[in-house]
Amino acid sequence: MNKGRKHRRGGRNRHKGKAGGGGEAAEEPEAEVEEGAGGPTVEETAAAAAEAVDAASNAAQVAASAGVSLQQSQPARTETKPKAKAPSTKTADRLTDDPGVTEGLMLPEERAFVVKNSDIMGRYLVAARDLEPGEVIICEEPLVVGPSQAFKPFCLGCYQRIEDDGRPAFRCERCGWPLCGRACRGAGAAGGHSAAECSAWAAAGLRGRGPPAPLAYQAVMALRCLLLRDARPDAWRRLSQMESHNEIRRKLPELWRHNQAVVVERIREDWKMADRFTEDEIHTVCGILEVNSFEVGQHGTRALFPTAFLLAHDCVPNTSHSDDTDDFSLTVRAAHAIKRGQPITLSYAYTLQGTLKRREHLRESKFFDCACARCADATELGTQVSALKCPKCPRGFLLSSAPLDAHAPWRCGGAAACGFVLDAHSVRLLVDRINEELETVDANDVRALEAFLKKYRNVLHSHHYLALSAKHSLAQLYGKAQGYTIHELSDELLARKRDICRELVRVFDVLEPGLTRLRGICLYELHAPLLILATRGFEARAIAPKELAARLQEVVACLEEAARILALEPDTSTEGIMGQAAADALLRMRDWHRAVDAL
Ligand SMILES: C[S@@+](CC[C@H](N)C(=O)[O-])C[C@H]1O[C@@H](n2cnc3c(N)ncnc32)[C@H](O)[C@@H]1O
């Protein structure tokens, strides 16, 4: 304990040297409680504060570096058309009559789920008992792993990037495919460049040819699936049970032609496997991949899993999932309490997008029309993430008059409504144009992002998903970007970071509720400005110890929730590392909070 206090004093000095903006505002306040009188001194609390602030600074760095991986493990994307009318998870369901689906996965009494079947959704999972927040529902290894759709040259063994100038450093001695090196840990492994794949290409005479065309990588995953038939019949049997939506996809000429040229002909003609795999078999595997695969890892890889593919979609999912970066195993957990009999869901779409975009993505890549509670509500459960400001009146907002119909007009509604109507086509054009503009903004440019928000403040609701997207970047940049490190931020900019984080957390509470990565990371981001503002206020004697204690309580609450959420992530993932940092910061904060409370 004593050792800890000494250490904190050291931290204080470090902080003093760095204090930005206010310069000497970091002067230590005079002691108001006698040292040794039973409670901590103000000096000690200030020293503890300094260390906690330093930790917050590091925290901001960790948090900032984690942002990019937020969308991992969303099922992969593609294109196409609707199936039937969507979810209604309330239909008269029946237990699946196909025991092969879950056979051998877990003892029935241990299982958190049962498989049901509905006319609308096909098979889906339902909680077999009440599930606790954070409870593991599925933990499994992939049936097959491989590259996602478009790709630059990378090692088929371990998936790291390799030279892309057409002269890779190393080629597999047997089949000639570029790999990272002779000692690649994925060479010969089932989840990497397997013996079956190597033999197939060796037999096709690939070795004598030049480097594979970039498009060739798009056929690798389909080939890996097809090779399971002989190499791992059990895995092939599970994969064959997955939905391919062939009947819908066949009617989509662009998609079908693309797969024919890039995958079917590559495998049958270029790789000389026409006698092994029919065109139909290959198209079916393409469909299975489009509908069921998850993005995994950090290098553009995807995977099929034996059970997780059965999870139905909901735009407000009740699970969160993460994959292990080493072996790509997937863990699906309850994000919050799930009652026995409730469907277990995940989101196939990016939750921070508006209904028009999400439904378009689901229709084109998963071949169904979502009609979940969020999609059916123009306000998106009160979050207003699609709302536009009315151009005709000062306080109204435009919302779709019928959100399940993409062509329905948008109307200025609510108490302050003027009734102005805009057709759906114009809304789409407007939002697409603003989206394009946002995409041209450098994601690391604080000023440009702020300018974007200012420019559209009279067009987009402050919670519109495009505004939230810019704010999401800003939440990470404030505290990390050059010229905006946490100690450099003025009180005003710290307050800006705090307000943005609070706004994001409020939206995530509705759209990604419970133990979800987005919430965890954002709460972690939020603790830093809260802490530093409180510290500065205290050091400047602008706030009294009582108020400081109240503010620190909020910091502790943020860290507790962030640590709880991020502890569920794999230890070596960026989020897992952030979770550990949150737990460490929490220990320091609790000390300090107790000290301040005792003043
Ligand atoms: C990954 S699969 C899920 C398993 C699938 N139900 C089965 O029986 O193989 C995705 C497909 O399930 C159906 N699906 C999933 N969630 C749905 C939802 N909320 N509404 C309608 N269909 C859904 C769609 O056909 C979608 O293409």
Question: What does the model show?
Answer:
One of its GO terms (molecular function) is S-adenosylmethionine-dependent methyltransferase activity. This is SET domain-containing protein. By secondary structure, the protein is of the alpha+beta class. It has a domain at about 145-305. The protein has 17 helices and 17 strands. It has a 4-stranded antiparallel β-sheet with strand order 14-15-16-17. Strands 1-2-3 form a 3-stranded antiparallel β-sheet, with no helix packed on it. Strands 4-12-11 form a 3-stranded antiparallel β-sheet, with no helix packed on it. Helix 12 (about 445-455) packs antiparallel against helix 13. The longest helix is centred in the first third of the chain and has 25 residues, at about 40-65. The two termini are about 20 Å apart. Mean pLDDT is about 85; it is low at about 1-45 and about 60-105. Bound molecules: S-adenosylmethionine. S-adenosylmethionine binds near residues 87, 121, 123, 310 and 312. S-adenosylmethionine (SAM) binds near residues 120, 122, 292, 366 and 367.
Notable features of this structure?
alpha+beta; 17 helices; 10% strand; 599 residues; 4-stranded antiparallel β-sheet; binds S-adenosylmethionine; 3-stranded antiparallel β-sheet; 17 strands
